[in-house]
């Protein structure tokens, strides 16, 4: 089961869990209402996995690449982490599948509060186009993640505020329709 929780207000190291106290866990259903979808897969067989293939077919995730985020492997590691942790949105869904290591995807709920989603090996997630979010490593400082895409990747992050985009408007409409 995915672990997710509301965050505390502290501004210290984002790699720490930042669980609100008393704890306020968030379940899959609540994530779904924000348009966030989650799957658990067997990451050891990502190169030949019928379950992954099925999801890719059904959802038209035809393109993919893999990023490894750790100090020694990623050029401009610190800069990239800073960019990932800036609150942003995309005009397309962000689809990530954790092949190894772990990290946090933070998403805004309807009231603009941060929900932290702990993602580890085997976790796959879709963040809908237009949702404000950010990413941080955890204290393990290592993640290997697949990114999937519908069609050709046209990848741009727009830092908040980015409310004028159609994708943001569509997402807010979606939120308004979910109870
Ligand atoms: C993004 O938008 O590319 C990210 O949030 C980075 C996550 S990398 C595991
Ligand atoms: Ni993103």
Key structural traits:
binds nickel (II) ion; binds 4-(methylsulfanyl)-2-oxobutanoic acid; two-stranded antiparallel ribbon; alpha+beta; Jelly Rolls; 179 residues; 10 strands; 21% helix
Characterization of the model:
- The chain has 179 residues and is of the alpha+beta class.
- The chain has one domain (3-170): Jelly Rolls.
- It has helices at residues 28-33, 50-59, 77-85, 166-177; strands at residues 3-6, 37-40, 63-69, 88-89, 94-108, 114-120, 123-127, 133-137, 143-149, 158-159.
- The strands form 2 sheets. Strands 1, 2, 3, 5, 6, 7, 8 and 9 form an 8-stranded antiparallel β-sheet that branches. It has a two-stranded antiparallel ribbon with strand order 4-10.
- Strand 5 and strand 6 form a beta hairpin.
- The longest helix has 12 residues, at 166-177.
- The relative contact order is 0.24.
- The model has no long low-confidence stretch (mean pLDDT 96).
- Nickel (II) ion is lined by residues 88, 90, 94, 133, 157.
Question: What is the element layout, followed by pairings?
Answer:
Blueprint: E1 3-6, H1 28-33, E2 37-40, H2 50-59, E3 63-69, H3 77-85, E4 88-89, E5 94-108, E6 114-120, E7 123-127, E8 133-137, E9 143-149, E10 158-159, H4 166-177
Antiparallel strand pairs: 1-6, 2-7, 3-9, 4-10, 5-6, 5-7, 5-8, 5-9
The structure holds 4-(methylsulfanyl)-2-oxobutanoic acid and nickel (II) ion.
């Amino acid at each position: 089961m995915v672990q997710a929780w509301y965050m505390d207000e502290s501004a210290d190291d984002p790699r720490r869990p930042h669980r609100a106290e008393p704890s306020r866990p968030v379940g899959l259903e609540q994530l779904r209402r924000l348009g966030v979808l989650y799957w658990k897969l067997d990451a050891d067989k990502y190169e030949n996995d019928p379950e992954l293939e099925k999801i890719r077919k059904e959802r038209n995730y035809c393109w993919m690449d893999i990023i490894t985020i750790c100090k020694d492997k990623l050029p401009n590691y610190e800069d990239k982490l800073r960019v990932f942790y800036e609150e942003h949105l995309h005009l397309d869904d962000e689809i990530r599948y954790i092949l190894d290591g772990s990290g946090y995807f933070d998403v805004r709920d309807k009231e603009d509060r941060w929900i932290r989603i702990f993602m580890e090996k085997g976790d796959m997630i879709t963040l809908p186009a237009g949702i404000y979010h950010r990413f941080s490593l955890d204290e393990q400082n290592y993640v290997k993640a697949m990114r999937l895409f519908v069609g050709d990747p046209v990848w741009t992050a727009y830092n908040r505020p980015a409310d004028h985009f159609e994708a943001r408007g569509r997402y807010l409409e979606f939120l308004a329709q979910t109870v």
